[in-house]
Write a structure and sequence with these properties.
23 helices, ATP-binding, DNA-binding, single chain, alpha/beta, 18% strand, DNA polymerase, domain 1, six-stranded parallel sheet, NA-bd_OB-fold
Amino acid sequence: MAGPWSAVGSKDSVAVLKGVGRQAAETLQEMKIETIHDLIMTFPYRHEDFQLKDLADTPHNERVTVEGRVESEPSVLFLGKNKSRTTVQVMVGRHLIKAIFFNQPYVKAKLHIGEIVTLAGKWDRGRQIITVQSHTIGPRTGGADFEPVYSLKGSIHQKTFRKLMRQALDIAKSDLEDCLPERFRTAYHLASIEDALEWVHFPVDGEALKQARRRFVYEELLIFQLKMQALRKKNREEEGGSFIDYDLNELKKFIQSLPYGLTGAQKRVVNEISKDMKEPFRMNRLLQGDVGSGKTVVAAIALYAAVTAGQQGALMAPTEILAEQHANTLAEWFADFPVKIALLTGSVKGKRRQLILDQLAAGEIDMLIGTHALIQPDVAFKKLGLVITDEQHRFGVDQRRVLKDKGYNPDVLFMTATPIPRTLAISAFGEMDVSVIDEMPVGRKEIETFWMKKDMFGKIVGRMEKELAAGRQAYVICPLIEESDKLDYQNAVDLFQQLSSHFYGKFTVGLMHGRLHSDEKEQTMRSFSEGEVAVLVSTTVVEVGVNVPNATFMLIYDAERFGLSQLHQLRGRVGRGSDQSYCVLLADPKTEVGKERMSSMTETNDGFVLAEKDLQLRGPGDFFGRKQSGIPEFKMADLVHDYRALETARKDAESLVSSEEFWTSDEMACLRSQLEKSGALAGGRLD
């Protein structure tokens, strides 16, 4: 390439750029920008749109650029030290609007009646006001319609950064490598890397920006899915994967012995799981099912399949009470079958514990149910073939791995009652196969859900009392444990005292929250399960797994503080028996999102519908909780809006990873290098 940059390329340091001194270089380094390539791959987080718009077509609260004629003398109101508001009337097309300038009193001297001005700012459609962010005197001439805005640090300003970007793009054009194979660019009409970079940083119009984004979204999702599919391939093809040659006739006998028939969805997932178990590779499957959809029955069938093949099964639950519930349920179902079931939790100690460990090591125990006690060093199986983790997101990755490692690559089934939207399942659990129970058992009554304002609290307690008088039980859920100076939300301790006083001499009220010792939590929950406590006031620690069929009433205080998925999980603690159940959301939401959340809860009991809605309202980062979500940070892709591209990328990645060409051809070398950087290959080819 001729010119001043002929000896410089994208791998060179940003220090070669004009305007990058020591301080700027250090600031760029803080932004993880060391090379010219790093710089050009730093995308704007938004673009300022300077295209002139018709206000009639501009939605409320959107940024807009307009031309208009000044119709009044500007007036300035001083609001205190260095604060002011300047207001002027401007005719924009056929709209007479107000333009407001904050803390810019000097514009009064520049704005004259009859003069044309160009204004850019936020449009308040109802009040017909533009809050001006930038302006020029005179009609709009020249300048780009779209201006990139970057997330910057230190003393580097947008204008400076754009100048650096212009230099960097001119340099990098000489040696850009396009990682996307031509077949994909052609098939999906995607821009080349050179065009896409030019258009994302300096778009000539909206269409160019759209095409740049399409290209980078697909590329980003493809590389991510290649990593997921490579991990999946590696997991499936690990040497010595479990092969469970179960007895189909025995399995059918067990299914026929169950107190109720399987739903169509249960049959489908049982077939998916049993097919995996017969394969010579290790099963790595996620089983999703809404609250009460019958995941435990599916788990029991899978465990029995392992037992009929002469192997052992393990089921790990997050709490002792949930582990006990599973053990009791399985003991009931397998009462007429030659299956030995044992329960191992932290409460099992001394000789009783040692006996279980001895029998387990000798292969005399077929199914071991328990908590994290299953992963203690002295717990040894004779032949562990299947590991099931209930509410898998409650265990850390290391805890799940320790249990898996107690067998020789046993099949692994993760279960969750948290409905996960398909886009998130593909992303967070992309290396797994996913089975979904999306059908509820026949005859199950829907929980009637109501949204009520806080001034109705007395009436709600009266309705709760009717349920209690009929011999049933109630949950009262609230978001805080004790008073907070910062948040004016009812807390569990206050509510417990209030209800204890109200029901004194009639019904016993219990209190449970995260600050109680685990033994106290277990005891409180046991008292509620056994009916000794009529009303359980609790924080969200009851969210997962508790099964009290006699509980028919739930009150969620300050319900606007919870996400939709969490509200749905909480609601699922009632409605587990044959009686009609009720859930009351006590909330005075101040935002539109809060109101929409409450309305959605009253409209559907379908967890998957709510999960999709929650994803739209909260975004993927908050869906699982940011700390351990497993959701990657994308530069350009958005899992909510780009779900079609995600599906396409997954399909393409699966096809590539399973092909010989991907691992050998020169055309795929760049994609392979991206995989190597991600660590998914762990030292080489997977096949």
